[in-house]
Design goal:
Elements: H1 2-14, H2 27-34, H3 38-50, E1 54-57, E2 61-64, H4 73-79, H5 82-103, H6 106-122, H7 127-143, H8 148-172, H9 183-194, H10 198-218
Antiparallel strand pairs: 1-2
Helix pairs in contact: 1-3, 2-3, 5-7, 5-8, 5-9, 5-10, 6-7, 6-9, 7-8, 9-10
Length: about 220
Amino acid sequence: MVEQAAERLREQIVRGHWPVGTKLPGETTLAKELGVGRSTVREALRALAGAGLVRPRQGAGVFVTATRPTEDWPARLRRAAVTDVYEVRMLVEVEAARLAALRRTEEDVAAMREALAGRRLAAEGDDAAFVDADIALHAAIVASARNPVLTDLFGEFAPMLREGLIELLDLLGLRGTDLRHGEDAHADVVRAVETGSPEEAARLTRKELESTLALLQSTP
């Protein structure tokens, strides 16, 4: 009911029924027009506020602030080219690896080693399992940077990366001759983080990611 109410209100705003700057009718009036309860209207207005279409003003009411919804970050990522996402991923992970080498704890090292072993074991599985294990290792390295913003950014990229990497492995058959594709490079990154070598960790991460980006860019 909330989604339906929000969609009907959104349509009216997009069509210009209520121009920007207009105060919306009260909850009671909207509830009667939509045939729903006031609580449903309230939740629908919250959804519209989250999309940037309206803004409540304390004691004054709810006003239209835009006639087009603001595209949220996950939606933008889903629409982006995988190569564009991968370029930003490089920026995040190179710095994350450098910070991880400075901040990692014994627990972080154990998590990275476990993820590295998991990636090695997943080499015997299908491409999807291998990519999942690979992303889990990268996530462990990013988490070792001890920066929640970096961790959240990587988490946003992960679904898009997973899809693109599975397609890449299937298209190019990279694991046909090398089931453990990239194992040594990943082990070197973990070692650099573990030994507290920030510049080496950053350099190795960049090198490993650049090789995959080059493959992505060369794929038709």
